Structures are given as C-alpha cells and as structure tokens.
Amino acid sequence: MNELIYAVGPGEFLAICSAFTFSISQILIRLGLRTATPLAAAFIINGVVSLCGLIVSIAKGTLFSSSLTPLLWFAAVGLVGPGIGRISYLIGITRMGLSRSVTITSGTPLWSTLIAVIVLGESPSGWVVVGTLGIVFGVSILSFREDESQTFKSRFQGALIFPLIASVAYALPPLFSKFAYVYQRAPEVGIGVAFLVANVFLFVCRPLIPGRGEVTVNRAGFFWILAAGLFSTGSSFLLWTAIMVGDISTTMPLSRTAPVLILILSYFFLGKLEPITRRMVFGSSMVVIGGVLITALR
C-alpha cells in the first residue's frame, strides 16, 4: 500500500479515495431526493459535514487556536462551494438526472487547473493537461439530453445552467483553501467553518431561490440524506487533505473521476431512475482515461 501511495502521490491517492466516497454519497442523495427537496438535502448534508468538522477541530484544539485570516478564507470556501455550488448542483440533479448532472459538474477541473496555473503558478505536465482535457471532453459529451427536439436555449435555461454554475463554483474553494493553509494547515477547521457558512448562506438566500425555497423531507428521505452527509464528510476530509499536501492541478481532476463509479452504482441501485445510455458510458470512459493519464504520467 505504501508503494502504491508513493507511486501515485499522497495528494493524488487521497483525491481518488475522495472520488470513491463522493460517488457513494451521490447515490444516496439521489435516493433521498425522491421525497426531499434540494434545499432540504443541502441543509442536512452541509449540517452533517460542518458538525463533524467542528467536533474534530474542537477535539484537536485547532478551532480555538485559529486566527481571523484563515477563518475568513474558509468562510469564503463555504460561500462559493457548499453554498452556491451545492444548491446549483442539487437542482441540476432533479432536472437532468444524477449521471448527467455530476458529469457536467465534473468540468470543474478545467477551471481549477486554469486557476492553479494563473494564480498559484503551478506547472502541470503536458499529460496532466491532456488528462484534464479528456475529463472535460467526456463531460461535454454528456452535456445535453437525448431529446433533440429541445432547443439549446431551452436546455440551457431549463437544466444545463445549474451544473455549469456548480462547476465554476466548485473550482474556487481549492484556491481559497490554499490561501488559508498558508496561515493554518487544519482541514477540519476549514470543513467545519465552510459548511456552516454555507448553511447560513442558503438560509438567507432561501427566498431568492425560484420555486426551490421549500424545505420538505419525510422520514425515509431524511435518513437517505443523512447517510449521504456522512459519506460527504469522508469525501470532504479526503479532498481537503489532498489539496493541502498536493497540487490543485492534479488533485482536483482526480477527485472528479467519480462519474464512472456513479454509472456502475446507478445501474445496480437506481434502476429506472437513471437509465444508462451508450453516450453516457463513452463520456464517462473519457473521464476515467483522463484520470489515468494524470495519475500515471504526471
């Protein structure tokens, strides 16, 4: 195992593990959204992740030793990622389905790599760039519904806009986290603060969400979403640590290779909720090939 981690890279290995736990959480979310609204799911997931982060940070003593500067950067993470990104992503799931929504959102590596190069001065290898483009290409294949009778405008306004917004929103937190880690290398503090801020943001902006301000969930839906929150917690800890020890230009693309796992799990657990097409399989295969290039030839 140590040889594998060394060969892949600790940050990259953690990012792959994050993608695995992320895929499980998305299946649970999809099951929960049968009886829960997207905003209710967002509140529950953010609350679970924040609570776990705060408990760990209090136990380790890192929360109360934090200074204002890293806390502000962590709060910015919560505003754009679990806040704007989360609600856009969940609405996308209900309008486009899990597989398409998550793969479109996986376009985040393109934005995060560009940001890492421009702002942080990272220098990814040519193969990392090719792998990232492969992931984005796979995402683009799955960007539209098979219903060709719809115009581009109706698709864009009706569904595609939400995962696209999420993809950009999810690209900014790694940058903000890197800035925060300059002052305090404590992922648990970041997770606790960021997801708490996200819930405050969603609560304040709730009246501005057209037709999506309702917060309803039954007992079964609550437990599905709660379980999703626990897996999201594991995914968050893995990814935040990966970003701390690795480069954004490699860890972020690898963390977004979850679509192939989601396709497999969707086939077995979601049935008619998520029909699998050849286009979806091909697009997800491109995502995985891109991840392999980044891992093996970085």
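Next protein, fold it too.
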Amino acid sequence: MTNQLTGSENEAGTPRAGSWMTATARRVVPLGLRQSLIAIVLGLAICFVVILLVASDPLAAFDSFIVGTFRSTYSFGSMIAIATVLVLTALAAAVSFRSGAFNIGTEGQLVLGGLVAAVTAQHLGVTGLVGQAVALVAAAVAGALWITIPAILRVRYRTNEILTTLMFNYIAADLALYLVNSYFRDETSGAVETPPLDQSMWLERILPPSAANVGVVLVIVIVTAMWVLFDRTRTGRRMEASGMQPAFAEYLGIRSHRYLFCSLLGSGALAGLAGGVAILGITHAYVSGFSPQYGFLGITVALIGRLRPVGILLAAFLYSTLMTGATAMQSTTDVPFALVFVLQGVLILLITSQRTGGKA
C-alpha cells in the first residue's frame, strides 16, 4: 500500500524542518526546588545589601521588609488580596508555558479583563452573587478574546507569540485608556476611572478593613482544578506532551495545534479573570494603572513555583508578603518601596540564567 504523506512530511515520513511541529518544539524548563530556594535566598541577600547601603537603620528596615506583613490585620489582609491576583496571573503563565508557548501578554489581558468586569458590573442590572459571577465570566472571556489573534498567528502562521503577546500589552493599555475616556469615565473624578461599583458587586471582604476577599476561595478552587488537570487527566498530559514533543504527539494522534490554541485561550482567560478579581475585590472601579504589573509579576511567580499549581500558590503568597512588607518598610524607614522591583529584577536574572530544554 502506498504511503500518503502530508505536505509537512518528507519521503521518510518525518516532519520537515519548517513544519508546525518542528517550529513549536520548545518549552520553559522551570527551576528545581533547590534552585528555586537558592534564587529566593540570593534575591533576599542582594536586597539586604541594598538596604545596608541606603537605610539609616538597616536591621529595622530589613525586619519590616520580611515580617512587616504579619504585624497588623490590615497588612496581612492586603497580602492575601495581592496573592489572590498573583496566583491567577501565574497560573495563566503556567498554562501556556507547559504547553510550549510563551504568553507574555498577561498584563494586557488582565487590564482589559478588569475594564470589562467594571463595565459589566456597572451596567448589568443584576447585583449580588449572580452579578459578580457574570462580571467575572465576562472578564475571563475578554482575556481569552484578547489573546485569540496572537494564538491564531502562532498556530496557523508560526508567528513568534512572544512578540505578538508583548505588543498586545501596549495595545490593550491604549485601548482601555481610550474606552474609559470616551465612554465609561466617571465625570466627577479627576482620575481616569469608571464610576464606583455598587457595594453589592464587591467581592465580600474576609478581613476588613483590608482588601482581602472571598476571591481567595475561588483561587484555591482553581488551583485544585489546575492540579487535577495537569497531573491527573489525559487532557493535561496530552497538553504537556504537545508542548514538549509536538512531532511525537502528532505521531500518536494528538492534535498538538488544537491543544496549543486552547491552552493559549485558557491562559488569556485566567489573566482576564485576575483583572476581574482585582476590580471587584480590591479597587471596586476600573482605575487606570490599577495593576502594579501583576501580569509580569505572575510570570516570575510561575517560574519560582516551578509551573506547578501548589508551588505557584506558595510562591505567590511569598512574593505578596514581600510586597506588603516593602510597604510597611517604606512607612517606617527611609527605604523606598522600589526595593521590590530590585528583588523582582534579581529573581528574573536568576531564573533566566537557567537553561531551557531537558528534564523539568
């Protein structure tokens, strides 16, 4: 019987060098547990050196940076609120990374998800849990829609998704600014923001007066679901196989391009949901610049958490502890909050110094 070869195969029946499968045979290899701990310790050590150089009382400043989060209910609740958003953006990054794609556009997806959540909650006409649920679903859909074009370009035309998703961040920021200024702006406010949401649309607080809210429960449910998906289902295994070895996956009958496309949409949906949780749970209105780069921070958290849901949960709480600790340090000493960005930069350098490829 004569072999029927596809256009992407040569006479030996193997994929051509320019085929979709060959072009996508790449993935992120996360740090091992020991490497993650070393990265964190080295990052904190460098931050301590910076504190020694700029603080008049280095020990007090470092003490506030590390344990300041736990000295008041408000700081502890703020840490939980930040971690809630960071877990979602980190999961968004992890979904795409484990599938062999690099979604660097989580910040833009989060911004548009937040705007859509605010507008939906404002004009839906339904309040309470139903209204909150609809607004959050709308945010997730917005995030998925925003990554659709980069996903199509990646799957169909092999366009580098790092570039497209990164550029879409800037488009999203400008689009959100235009939409708020033109259609949804609160005319009574001097800031670029939408009108405040009705209190019935707020995610219920769990540690008032802090911003900690029931979104953390939603996050724990999602983390559990992602753990089951990644480690306990055939879909999760096929998704990861498609990212690690797309040619072999296709040989086994797995449609790698479909898994990649769906993974990118899922990644965008999680990032959009993060924006919705931030709006309904923390700011209670869309405010331009509401995100302190949650999307980019989520990528760091995902890699520190080894792209595993439980690891991401722990890494997010650690990183948010340092963020709120930096706020406490800034209020009690002469060290600025910008120290967090020093830590972020150090961690990124330590993470990206690791090789890609090989065994995770």
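About the second fold: The two ends are 41 Å apart (CA to CA).
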